[in-house]
Specification:
Blueprint: H1 3-11, H2 18-21, H3 23-38, E1 56-58, H4 79-96, E2 101-103, H5 128-132, E3 140-144, H6 153-170, E4 174-179
Parallel strand pairs: 1-2, 3-4
Length: 184
């Protein structure tokens, strides 16, 4: 329990983004992935990497330069930082399990010059277009929390349309992994 920041704490790191760059932390992540993918389902007797009841894996849940934990983003965390990590880890996952779809698990933030909202101004270190280009990622993912993000229904509809267009452009399915609305 504790996600990325737990790895950073175990390694004695200083920033949340150490998760994406520290060689020791990346090794621990790969060890966990290898353990999980090779684990044998105690009900079916099939290794998870071969388990037909699993549709897809995601590399992380909502990876960003900044997390909700105690660590600040590193001063050098950029969209390139997270894209490089995703490229490396997606290739690692696929080297063990090429049977399942693989997604990033991100919220689908865009990185656009002159972006007018924090979900599209590169400030989170996520670039949906760059992630969509990663060969070993099979899905264009997004999460959507309109009222939590300070957006509207119209904005949300366009966010979905933009991701569908991106998915069509790269020939991959779009996957809305999380959605929530607090109000009426």
């Amino acid at each position: 329990y504790g996600g990325m920041d737990q790895y950073v704490q175990w390694a004695g790191g200083d920033y949340h983004s150490d998760f994406y760059t520290d060689p020791t932390i990346k090794g621990w992540y790969r060890d966990w992935v290898e353990h999980l993918l090779n684990r044998v389902n105690t009900i079916t007797g099939v290794a998870y990497k071969d388990e037909p009841t699993i549709m897809a894996w995601e590399l992380a849940n909502e990876p960003r330069c900044l997390a909700s934990g105690k660590y600040e983003p590193g001063p050098d965390c950029t969209t390139e930082t997270i894209t490089a990590w995703a490229t490396e880890m997606a290739a690692f996952v696929k080297s063990i399990d090429s049977n399942h779809l693989l997604g990033m698990g991100d919220e689908g933030f865009f990185c656009e010059e002159g972006g007018d909202h924090w979900t599209n101004d590169c400030s989170q270190g996520v670039d949906a277009r760059a992630l969509a280009q990663i060969e070993d990622l099979d899905m264009v993912g997004l999460h959507l929390y309109p009222d939590h993000w300070g957006t509207s229904v119209d904005w949300s509809e366009q966010y979905i349309v933009d991701h569908l267009a991106l998915a069509a452009e790269v020939g991959k399915p779009a996957f809305l992994g999380e959605y929530g609305w607090r109000g009426d």
